[in-house]
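Holo prediction — heme C.
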Amino acid sequence: MLKRPLLIAAALCALATPALADEPGPGGSKPPVARTGEEIYRTYCQACHMADAKGAVGAGSFPALANNPRLGTTGYAAYVIANGRGGMPWFKDMLSKEQAQALIGYLRTHFGNNYKEPVTAADVEAFGQRPSSRF
Ligand code: HEC
């Protein structure tokens, strides 16, 4: 009676082990991968656009993404983020399509922006340029 659940548990552990090896753990050599829109924003964007997305003016001029009517067009944000512009770096070879979709969706529905229309696969076509950048 007692043996079967234990066997199943042991089998599940054996199956789970290879996947665990790919996950970054505490003290592991790989940094954690940013997956949600918020994580991606914190990792790649907030250094310039600030935590509240209100931008900053100082050593450079970083436009606010908060309450930004330009985010009303999915294609505009996707274009600037993919290709960069002026003092902004490009991200098409750094973010996967999935990350770009999550990030742009997040920006469009946070920081006072209220654009609920989903970001489509066509919007993020330019991303994921280097296969090695896909997570
Ligand atoms: C190194 C600083 C820097 C980083 C990092 C950065 N940006 Fe920017 N961003 C800028 C600057 C500077 C501009 C203004 C560019 C111009 O118009 O000349 C800008 C412009 C933009 C615009 C256009 C805003 C408008 O009103 O036209 C968007 C959208 C944007 N950034 C989103 C992002 C996102 C999302 C990220 C993270 C993936 C990001 N940026 C990372 C500096 C940065």
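READOUT: Confidence is low (pLDDT under 50) at residues 11-15.
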